[in-house]
Design goal:
This protein has about 130 residues and is mainly alpha-helical. It has six helices and no strands. The chain starts with about 25 loop residues before the first helix and ends with a helix.
Amino acid sequence: MSFTENDRKFRSNSGKSFPDGDGYDAQRIVDALAEALRADFGSAPSSVKRIARLTRANERAVRNWMDARNGPRGENLIVLMQHSDAVFEIVLMLAHRVHAPGGTFLTRLRKELMDAVSTIDEWEAGQA
């Protein structure tokens, strides 16, 4: 049994697309997510395997996410947000919710404040 010669050789252009509400098209979202993944996990082959284990996705799919060819499905995006601060922040930014309660902004700000207080304490101890 052989394959037919009438196979489709290209993707159709009539598919679902994101609405153009705030100027975000699908490719910009995919590019931003790919950049966030590379920032948190790196671009080595071992990072692809690690992300595939975390999301239980196929390694080829993860490579496509990191190369900005496709974006992750909703379930995988939620898992990525659980394990990656960069992905979490980029999703909040794309949704215009950067200062949402519970965001990593507050966590990072708390850590910076604690570091500043410990530096002041160390300086004061050295002056005494």
